[in-house]
Each structure stands twice: as structure tokens, then as C-alpha cells.
Amino acid sequence: MNYRYNTLSSDFITQDSNETRLGFYVQDEWKLAKPVTLVTGVRYDLDTFIHPTASPRVALIYNPNEDHTFRLSGSVAYRPPTLFQKNVALLISSNPPLPPTPSLLVAGAAPPPEEIISYEAEYQGWYLKHRLRARATVFFNHISDLMTSESISPTLVTTHNDPGSADIYGTEIGVEFLVTKWLSALANYSYQSIHQMFTGRVQRAGPHNKFNIGLRGDWDNGFTAEAIYHYYGSATYPPGGSSTSLAQAGLISLPNSTVGSYNLLNLRGAYKFWQQKSEAGYLRDAEVALSVFNALNDKHQEYPLGETIGSRVMGWLTVRY
């Protein structure tokens, strides 16, 4: 079980607010047959602002032998409103050069919690005397009741649940390979597609395609090195409600909502120049390292309103004693 007591105080709220969360969780496993295991669990949550919720999950695991595993799973989860979304009454006064247009975000009845229903099917297998591991997953997520704020008058904003929903499905495949004693490699690819009826700022977005390729070397003389290449496909993000309102008033211009694809090559080299076994049995060590983020300097944005990201070089000295 878990218990949490949250409080919020700020110059931007009319009064201090608090919230109590109490949760219970139980899980069990059944060996239905020698290769088949059923794992079930349920979480029961009590929250100040919402009715009690039960979040079940179930997984069926099939192991035809020790090197191969198949898994089917499903789950339901909820997110209650935050203290800000429920209790805050916020007076927002715009600063020059904007005209003074105060808006009042008022607390009302708590909206129902956000909900996600998830399904997954996964395979994992070991090959070449456990030097190669392969994984493949397909997934489906249904998201509903996302919370958003809406202007109901020029000066009044309320929080409520968006009436739409989103279906997100996709797949991920990956391999990890021990090439030699000192060299390992990895590669994975993921695809996702989003179909939604959400409106405004709660709309979901993200790239359809992503993949990663990496190499890592680890030598007995203390040197390590790794290179990981990431590719992110383009994505179109809906403009936020505030940006849209300012653009309609002619105060700003909306940025291009499409973020183009970009590449990341991250490099790291390190040398462990000291090791000592402690009396307690663990190792003390010291390492100096150099890392390069975005070594190709592919300048890009991760979000239309985000900063342009370039390369970055950092040095590290790590001592564990």
C-alpha cells in the first residue's frame, strides 16, 4: 500500500490546498501449466477529488523453453486531476506590450480522472549461445478523458475533460549482439500511429518512425567507448491554446507546426584510471570521460516552440568511494 499527502501553496493561488491519496496493490502468479504463467494484479486508489478507481492488469506468459518467451498483457490506469487543475483560482494579468486582459481560472467540481487502456504482445528470444537477444512488441493504447482548460468568457477559464479520445498503436523490434568479448552492438526500430478525436491543446503527436544503432567497446585496460546513432522522423504538433489566442489577436505569428526529421550521433569515451576493493567488498573507482552530444551538429527542434538544439561537448570526472 502507499499513502501520499500533497500540498500546494503559492502567490498565484487564493488559498492553500491539499490532497490525500491512498492506494492498495496486490499481485499474484499462477503456474497454469509447466510452460504457461498467468500474472494478475489490481490497484485500488482513493483520492480526495475523484471516486475510487480500480486499475487491473493481467499478463499471460508462455515459455516453450528457457531461451524463448511470449507475453500477452492488458491493463487499465487512471490519473486524477492535479491540485492546480482542481483547486487553483489564478488571476493572470498580461504584461506590456499586451493589453491588460485578466483571466480567472476557477475551481469547480473535479473532472473525472484521465484513463488509459493498454494492450501488448511481445516476444523475446536468445540465440547463438546467448550472444544475440531479439525482441519484438506490438502495442495498442486507448486514451480518454484528458483534462484541458477552456475559456468560457473573456475573463473566465475552467478545467474539464476533453470529449474526444485517442488510439495509439505501433510496434518495436530490436536486437542486442555480443560481437566479441569487448564489443557489443544494438539496433532497434519503432513505429507508432495516432488516431484521435481530441481537440485543442490535448491532442497527441509524435514521430511515426524512430530507430537507434549503437556500438560499445569495453577493454580490460580501463578504456570504454560508445557511439549511438538516433533517427527521429518528422512530426506535426497542434498549436497550444495560448499561442492560438495570441495569433488570432494579431500579437504573434504561429510557428510552423511541423518539426522536421533529425539525426543524433552521440559519442562517449572514458578511462577508468583507479580501482580499489573496499573492506566491505565493493569496488571504489575513478573515471575520466568525454562525451559529445549531437556530434553531427544537426541543428533541430524537438517541438515547434522549443529551442534549436546543436552539439554539446562535456567532460566528466566520476569518483565512487
Short structural summary:
The protein is mainly beta and 321 residues long. Helices cover 4% and strands 61% of the residues.
SSE topology sketch:
Blueprint: E1 2-8, E2 17-33, E3 36-47, E4 53-65, E5 68-79, H1 83-87, E6 90-92, E7 103-105, E8 114-127, E9 132-144, E10 147-153, E11 156-161, E12 165-178, E13 183-196, E14 209-218, E15 223-232, E16 235-236, H2 241-248, E17 258-259, E18 262-277, E19 283-293, E20 312-320
Parallel strand pairs: 7-11
Antiparallel strand pairs: 1-2, 2-3, 3-4, 4-5, 5-8, 6-7, 8-9, 9-12, 10-11, 12-13, 13-14, 14-15, 15-18, 16-17, 18-19, 19-20
Overview of the structural elements:
By secondary structure, this protein is mainly beta. 4% of the residues lie in helices and 61% in strands. It has helices at residues 83-87, 241-248; strands at 2-8, 17-33, 36-47, 53-65, 68-79, 90-92, 103-105, 114-127, 132-144, 147-153, 156-161, 165-178, 183-196, 209-218, 223-232, 235-236, 258-259, 262-277, 283-293, 312-320. The strands form 3 sheets. A 14-stranded antiparallel beta sheet has the order 1-2-3-4-5-8-9-12-13-14-15-18-19-20. A 4-stranded mixed beta sheet has the order 6-7-11-10, with no helix packed on it. The radius of gyration is 25 Å and the shape is globular.
